[in-house]
Write a structure and sequence with these properties.
Number of strands: 0
Distance between the termini: 54 Å
Radius of gyration: 19 Å
CATH architecture of the largest domain: Orthogonal Bundle
Number of domains: 2
Order of helices and strands: HHHHHHHH
Structural class: mainly alpha
Shape: elongated
Oligomer: single chain
Helix content: over 70%
Strand content: under 5%
């Protein structure tokens, strides 16, 4: 049992070191040797836990997605009101990326356009909202496009420093989301 714990600990250290490696070097220059060095394990350790560098990158993406899905579950449990849930999902998505700078290395990976499944989660809630409001499919499509543009644009501008990552900015974004929902 202790051996499994140690192996899982090494695997998690490799994933966390891999996050830093992705942020620093991207996928093209991603080095398992540097990951091992950063995780303070042998150069062979990554190969004991992952088949390839791509396998480790997939594990990193899965780790980040697990963190996001935990947050989504909390939001869904805490907010039965669909308008409030959609607003919370959108603002939480922005906070997630701004609050986890070490996750950003995977944000714009071309192979994973919706890394966290945010668009899918948002769509689920919007479909529920449309059904409750007896709206057409075009309502969901238009609202989804508007909200994704607002959220993804906000994340991008905040990461570039062109929009303050402040409570006031998030409150304004939440207001805009509320306006779009009404």
């Amino acid at each position: 049992m202790e051996e499994n714990y140690i192996e899982e600990s090494v695997k998690k250290r490799l994933i966390l070191a891999g996050l830093k490696e992705l942020e620093s070097h991207g996928t093209v220059d991603f080095s398992l040797r540097r990951v091992a060095l950063s995780a303070e394990v042998s150069c062979a350790a990554p190969y004991r836990h992952f088949k390839s560098r791509e396998d480790l990158i997939e594990a990193i993406i899965s780790y980040i997605k697990e963190q996001w899905l935990l947050m989504c579950h909390t939001i869904e449990e805490a907010m039965p009101d669909l308008d409030a849930r959609v607003r919370a999902l959108c603002v939480s998505y922005i906070r997630f990326w701004i609050g986890n700078p070490n996750f950003r290395g995977v944000l714009f990976l071309s192979d994973h356009a919706d890394v966290l499944g945010f668009a899918a989660k948002l769509t689920e809630s919007l479909l529920e909202l449309a059904k409750m409001r007896e709206k057409e499919d075009s309502y969901v499509k238009d609202l989804r496009t508007t909200l994704l543009t607002l959220v993804y644009g906000s994340v991008f501008l905040m990461l570039r420093g062109e929009l303050a990552a402040s409570r006031e900015a998030l409150d304004q974004i939440s207001e805009k989301i509320g306006e779009a929902l009404s």
